[in-house]
Write a structure and sequence with these properties.
The structure holds two protein chains of two kinds. Chain A is of the alpha/beta class. Chain A has two domains: 180 residues, 3-Layer(aba) Sandwich (Rossmann fold), CATH 3.40.50; 128 residues, 3-Layer(aba) Sandwich (Rossmann fold), CATH 3.40.50.920. Chain A has 13 helices and 15 strands. Classes of the chains: A alpha/beta, B alpha/beta.
């Protein structure tokens, strides 16, 4: 796996993996369509769908009016009728206009119709900071969408996960919010076989094995966690275990608990704001289920509860390796 | 009209403007460009031609309209006596949804609102199923989860509305786009209210419909009031229909208390060719009753306006039309009402005897396969029930 060195030799970028995932899903099932702003000839503003319009035609790759609410809501109609729409929101910062349709229509149709109808669809939400995007273009919106059931939430952070999770999302019988890692689109590549195999939803991955402290994270910020872990292994000999959640709903509690029971120390890291963030839920559930194993309080590393700052946000708003390192040191050196 | 229409008792002194007696706009249908088949007496006006609906279909529609009115009468009493929690009246609106449903074929998809029980009955849904829904019982399609009158049933191609009014306008448009993509000739109908036209979803749906030309008829049921908000506070447009012009969506206004006119214009729009796209039909009608059982129209509207509309009652007009055609008479009318009331009583008895859903079923159907989080919450509820017992 290579960060910021994507070339033909180093394999497939995240962006190419997402495109391949969509393309393979559309090849496998003629009910799969892609819909969104500028997804056709332009290939999407990030070029994640370049060539798909030429390949599948304007009936299956649909340029829509500029209307996030309309894109998701029409996707719901398509799903009700039996198609499997992949709908693209250009930036997750724009997704809130569609909130009612995502949470109260798509995620509830199965329940509210007594199981008669369902809305299997994929909502693509390019997210995260580090791209000098300011608020709207660097947002982490996942906490708004995790409050009630009915929708799965996936967050791939490697090319292989991006490819396999796209396939899993399309095949899933429920609506899926696919949180895509914008900062990794072109900066990360890896070699893997694009064999049409879908990821298993709900499985986290231990990306670094350690015995001293567990860092539970997801999204591109996990590479800052890796940097911090690497540094601390050298400077202080701390043995950090890192868990990439990969799925937020339903998250993999078994993997988290197995790690917590081993290390006795937990830090959650995400780049969404701190209060009521996903880390808060993890902290609550971990203490409910593994209180007796904890040697130290659970710490959360997150962004502050303010908008993503444009000029200094990437350095001071978004968590980074330095802040994560300090958090790990505080946990490791905690005294009652 | 039933006696529950609001009275003017205790109303404060009227302004000069309010002294003018309200006139039902249907009275000047031609001048107002409202399409009509018959007048208040069931006589042909010469505007739209008599659709000459075959007697069997016509009677089915009329009988359903009467049943719908009888259900409203009884639903109101059930709510006031505490046997249903909530009631959404539909008195006066029978011509719109029954006329429109008659214009559609059974495989077509209908997205209905909450004042349209006739859609269910026209398609053959058993009456007891409606009452089981009103009473929130387990053995109805939605397992007691939805407010009374928020109905639908996939087995009859009737899609349950998402409860936020108007939210389903883009859903029906998307579903119809789906039929186009799949090359099916399924047709689509959606009925929503005048207030819904102010929501962003109306814009989204019309905008996509203008671009993609899906086979949908959107009926904007202009019943005069969105709770307490009249048309003049809802929009600056002279009509709701003309909003279609801005989107490139064919549109017209129809007399919504004239079941024959509704049937005629909806049928024509439904049968349009594959490239002719959607139609927005504004059906001018009037909500004779309250908004819901939690509303009091005395606070915002005049009895004189209600009275003006009562003279254009959709049931009376259609009955008179059928009497002219020698298809109907007083004896049949009396027998029909007696039968409707009896069937309703029997359905209530049967539905009230049904079980409520088991509390643990609230977790079902959230996902196709329950997540571990829901499994844990369900186990906690079951433990709580154990403790209760």
């Amino acid at each position: 796996m290579n960060i910021a060195t994507a070339t033909a030799d180093t394999g497939t970028t995240v962006l190419e993996a997402i495109k391949a995932g969509m393309s393979d899903a559309m090849d496998a099932d003629s009910d799969v369509i892609l819909m969104g702003e500028d997804v056709g000839l332009a290939g999407g503003i990030f070029r994640t769908s370049t060539g798909l319009h030429q390949r599948f035609g304007s009936k299956r790759v649909i340029d829509t009016p500029l209307d996030e609410k309309g894109i998701v809501a029409h996707g719901i109609g398509l799903a009700l009728y039996g198609l499997k729409p992949i709908v693209e929101i250009q930036f997750s910062g724009f997704i809130h206009d569609a909130f009612e349709h995502i949470m109260f229509c798509a995620a509830r149709y199965r329940w509210a119709s007594g199981g008669q109808y369902s809305c299997p669809m994929v909502i693509r939400a390019p997210s995260f900071g580090g791209i000098k995007g300011g608020f709207w273009h660097s947002q982490s919106v996942e906490a708004y969408f995790v409050h009630h059931g009915g929708m799965k939430i996936l967050c791939p952070s490697t090319p292989e996960d991006a490819y396999r999770m796209m396939l899993a999302a399309v095949q899933d019988p429920d609506p899926v919010l696919l949180i895509e890692p914008v900062p990794l689109y072109r900066s990360m590549s890896a070699k893997f076989e694009m064999d049409g195999k879908a990821a298993t939803i709900g499985e986290a991955k231990v990306t670094r094995t350690g015995s001293d402290v567990t860092v539970v994270t997801y999204g591109p910020i996990q590479y800052e966690v890796e940097k911090a872990a690497e540094e601390l292994a050298t400077t202080k000999g701390y043995d950090v275990e890192i868990i990439d959640l990969r799925t937020l709903i339903p998250y993999d509690m078994d993997t988290i608990l197995a790690s917590v029971k081993k290390t006795g120390r937990v830090i959650t890291v995400h780049e969404a704001p701190l209060s009521m963030g996903f880390g808060a839920e993890l902290a609550a559930v971990i203490q409910e289920k593994a209180f007796g194993y904890l040697h130290t309080p659970i710490q959360r590393v997150a962004a502050p509860d303010v908008p993503y700052h444009f000029s200094i946000g990437d350095e001071y708003y978004r968590p980074n390796a330095r802040r994560i390192r300090l958090a790990i040191e505080r946990t490791m050196e905690f005294e009652f | 009209m039933p006696s529950r229409t609001p009275t003017t008792k205790g109303r404060k002194t009227k302004t000069r403007e309010q002294e003018k007696l309200p006139v039902c706009p249907l009275q000047n249908a031609a001048a107002n460009n409202i399409r009509q088949v018959m007048d208040a007496e069931g006589k042909l006006t010469g505007d739209l031609p008599d659709p000459d609906i075959p007697p069997e279909k016509l009677l089915h529609m009329y009988e359903t309209m009467v049943m719908v009115r009888a259900i409203d009468d009884r639903g109101w009493l059930l709510q006031r006596s505490g046997r249903v929690e909530f009631w959404i009246p539909h008195c006066g609106l029978e011509a719109v949804h029954n006329g429109a449903t008659l214009a559609y074929e059974d495989p077509d998809w209908i997205f209905m609102g909450y004042r349209h029980p006739g859609v269910m009955l026209m398609r053959g849904v058993p009456l007891v199923q409606l009452f089981a829904q009103f009473f929130g019982r387990a053995d109805e399609p939605f397992k007691g989860r939805r407010l009374p009158t928020l109905m639908g049933d996939r087995r009859y191609n009737i899609v349950p509305m998402t409860t936020q009014v108007g939210s389903y306008i883009p859903h029906v448009c998307g579903a119809a786009m789906g039929a186009l993509i799949k090359g099916h000739d399924t047709k689509f109908l959606a009925i929503f209210g005048d207030g819904s036209s102010s929501r962003g979803e109306f814009h989204s749906g019309m905008n996509f419909a203008g671009v993609h030309k899906p086979p949908v008829v959107f009926i904007c049921e202009n019943n005069g009031w969105a709770i307490s908000t009249p048309q003049s506070l809802q929009t600056g447009s002279a009509t709701f229909a003309e909003k279609g012009d801005a989107y490139g969506v064919r549109n017209l206004v129809v007399d919504g208390n004239d079941a024959l006119a509704v049937y005629s214009v909806v049928k024509e729009a439904r049968d349009l060719g594959p490239d002719e796209g959607a139609t927005l039909i504004e059906a001018m009608t009037y909500r004779m009753g309250y908004h819901t059982s939690s509303d009091n129209p005395d606070l915002y509207r005049e009895q004189a306006e209600v009275d003006a509309w009562a003279a254009w009652d959709p049931l009376i007009r259609l009955r008179k039309y059928m009497e002219r055609k020698k298809l109907w008479n007083k004896k049949k009318e009396d027998a029909l009402w007696a039968r409707c009331k009896e069937e309703i009583s029997a359905a209530i008895k049967e539905a009230e005897a049904m079980d409520f859903p088991h509390p643990s079923t609230m977790f079902d159907d959230t996902f196709e396969e329950m997540t571990w989080m829901l499994e844990e919450q369900k186990a906690a509820l079951l433990a709580d029930l154990e403790d209760l017992s």
